[in-house]
Design a protein that fits this description.
The chain is of the alpha+beta class. It contains eleven helices and nine strands. Strands 4-6-5-3-7-8-9 form a seven-stranded mixed beta sheet, with helices on both faces. A two-stranded antiparallel ribbon has the order 1-2. Strand 5 and strand 6 form a beta hairpin. Helix 2 runs antiparallel to helix 3 and helix 6 runs antiparallel to helix 10.
Length: 275
């Protein structure tokens, strides 16, 4: 049954449902990939495809042939480049198909999409916990993503979604805790995951300068827009990683001020949206 017509395209009820389902899938993929290296690579692939469409429209045979050969193997390239993301995405779907409300398949419906309305992370309490860990030379790694909850990374550990507290952070990184080896992810004013496994930096210039915990901090900030806070088990000090670089020699006060400043723009944006 035709509902309405736009130029030569006739919209039916099936067409509209089809469009809504595709839009929902794209939105969920965006939420899962945003802020990651995979998201930037996906944007690159989409850009190449759109460029190929324009080349075909203007009938440029040489470019059309070159880009056409690339798009023929595009699906295989996507499977190779995004094999880890695809695997984790399928695991998330498998884990969330049945169960409670937060893991229900109905969370994909538009009225169940959750939008963060506030951003009020207590960085002072987090840094205070890390300072206590540093005094006892207990290693720790905390990741603060800016545009994503890093569900892919969190799926490698334990998803806890708990309120931030100094005692909880100290308990997680206690040397007798089964969760102390990995990283914790803090997003949207919650400790989202613990014991998460992060990608290590493969930069040969720094591999001999730092241990695995610091290389993981550098690796995650190379591939995403996140900021990482590291407590060294050997030196008993705190270090911040941003953009694949370690910002060393910062005091407790400077680290807290740095984190508050980095996320201040997000706080302003949310406050404006509420006003």
């Amino acid at each position: 049954m035709e509902l309405f017509k736009f130029y030569d395209f006739r919209f039916t009820l099936v067409n509209i449902i089809d469009i809504l389902l595709v839009a929902g899938i794209i939105y969920q993929l965006y939420r899962l990939l945003k802020g990651s290296l995979a998201f930037n690579m996906l944007i690159g692939l989409v850009t190449i495809y759109l460029f190929w469409v324009i080349v075909r429209l203007f009938e440029m045979p040489l470019l059309e042939t070159i880009l056409g050969e690339f798009t023929k193997v595009g699906f295989i390239a996507i499977l190779i480049v995004f094999q880890q993301e695809i695997r984790k995405f399928l695991l998330l779907i498998g884990k969330g198909t049945f169960g409670n409300e937060n893991r229900s398949v109905f969370r994909f419906l538009p009225w169940n999409w959750k939008i963060e309305n506030s951003f009020n992370t207590n960085f002072d309490e987090i840094v205070d916990a890390c300072e206590t860990l540093a005094q006892s030379k207990t290693g720790a790694l905390i990741v603060f993503p800016k545009t994503s909850e890093m569900k892919f990374i969190g799926a490698s550990g334990e998803w806890i979604d708990a309120n931030i507290s100094k005692r909880l952070i100290l308990s997680i990184f206690n040397k007798k805790s089964p969760l102390h080896d990995g990283a914790i992810i803090i997003a949207n004013s919650k400790i989202k995951a613990a014991n998460a496994v992060l990608p290590l930096s493969d930069n040969p210039d720094i591999q001999n300068q730092y241990g695995l915990r610091h290389l993981a901090a550098i690796g995650i900030t190379e591939q995403t827009d996140a900021i990482a806070l590291v407590v060294s088990e050997e030196k008993g000090n705190m270090t911040v990683a941003k953009g694949g670089k370690m910002l060393e020699g910062m005091s407790r006060e400077k680290i807290a001020a740095f984190l508050n400043k980095e996320f201040a723009s997000e706080m302003v944006r949310v406050n404006k949206s509420q006003s």
